[in-house]
Specification:
With 510 residues, this protein is of the alpha/beta class. It folds into 3 domains: 277 residues, Rossmann fold; 179 residues, Glucose-6-phosphate isomerase like protein, domain 1 (Rossmann fold, 3-Layer(aba) Sandwich); 35 residues, no CATH class. Helices cover 46% and strands 13% of the residues. It has 19 helices and 13 strands. A 6-stranded mixed beta sheet has the order 1-2-13-10-8-9, with helices on both faces. Strands 4-3-5-6-7 form a 5-stranded parallel beta sheet, with helices on both faces. Helix 12 runs parallel beside helix 17. The longest helix is centred in the first third of the chain and has 22 residues.
Amino acid sequence: MNTARDHVWKKLSLHQDPSLLELFAEDAGRLEKLSTRLDLGEVGILFDWSKTHLTDAYLDEFEELAEVSEFTEMRRKLFAGEVVNPTEGRAAEHSALRGVGKESSVEEAAALRDRMQFLVEAIHEGTLGDVKHLIHIGIGGSALGPALAVDALAREDPLVDVHVVSNIDGVALEEAFAACDPQTTLLAVASKTFTTIETMTNAASALKWLEQGGVSDPTGRVIALTAAPEKAVEWGVDETRILPFAESVGGRYSLWSSIGFPIAIAIGWEEFESMLAGAAAMDEHFRDTDGRANLPLRAAFADQYYTRIRGCQTRAVFCYDERLGLLPDYLQQLEMESNGKSVTAEGDPVDFPTAPITWGGVGTDAQHAVFQLLHQGTNLVPVDFIASIVPGDVLDPAHHRILLTNCFAQGAALTAGGNMSPDGKDPARAFPGDRPSATILCDDLDPATLGALIAFHEHRTFANAVLMGINPFDQFGVELGKKMAQDIEAGGVEFDPSTTALLKAAGLFD
């Protein structure tokens, strides 16, 4: 128990909350205080948190909360490669993969990256024959990160056509098979342990597909991405085609490691390195900046305010850019698997809400669906809007102009509210307003910017965990259902009457 933390929360709960319009009216400098542009080398991003209810008073006390939560020390441990995952006794060294961290870990990551670069460039140069397609097989972080980056950065003229398959549902694998020629296809099998049942089952089916397609040595077409290279060798993968990564890299933080192989294959090594550099620039900002000026920490202050003080159970993310359509899915795992906990890092029960449910979609599609609830529903939902100034298309500029004006208009409407009836009195046309949003406006959506954007959310997730005193780096909640599925496969285990009846109805139990 952290009594100093509890004391700060008691003070935070005593504040009065003016409306957003009142906050702007009362403080002429509000925009300057809460809207900050970061120029990080090639990356330019505007982070606008002025349409949230954060005030100077709240920020003062949230900074005190960070101090009593030992944020500075926990951040030091993170970048020093010390144990920050106490339940598993591990460091969390994803930042070292992009060059920011403990020196020995950075050097090890660079050596593994050189190995990956050699293989990626050899494939692009034709050393492995004519390679037009890659089927990347993984699950969880081993698939979500690559899928996001490939979709965002490789829509036009990829060097290799990449298909990411995660679902054990055979329909997903068949869809990839239909788009590929086995004679010109490589397989990437991504599994930390190289034992994940969904991944290895899909990999076995993909090998069979290659064999049926006339490939004489199917296993020779496999690239293994794993922290257990000996298991990949046992499975039959040639040592020269195994790209290891460190045990200290969690799945949802792994796209910077060899799990990023399909990204590099699709966009080229130089562009992949640019993505790493953008993330490293955000690492340095997070590592070297204190208090409210630290943007991931500032975002965590707002997250904690809405979750704990205002009781918000969800947070929505809407990307006004088709290329970021998979970002809400990626953030769901990053945030909910990290901070969806019910005990502290010391193992004590928590008596407050932890991670909200992260959800979202793509604008402007979402405006014609879920925004009804955001504007007029009874749930208060903080919203993040994410957009790019430079469009991803070469069509009439009207397309992008309308996209961005809709994005900004939604934030303005959530803030102001109003009544759309002629006399301004129809309750069905009334909008209460005073609904919070933040906007992340990128100069462009290039590899460096995407890297910085993802790293921002990684550090935001970590900062939230520190403020709550929980461990964001274990994920035992994903294990129980998987174990019970294995028990069903093994047989001889009794389940509740409903589950037993469902298994019989599906023909899985005698």
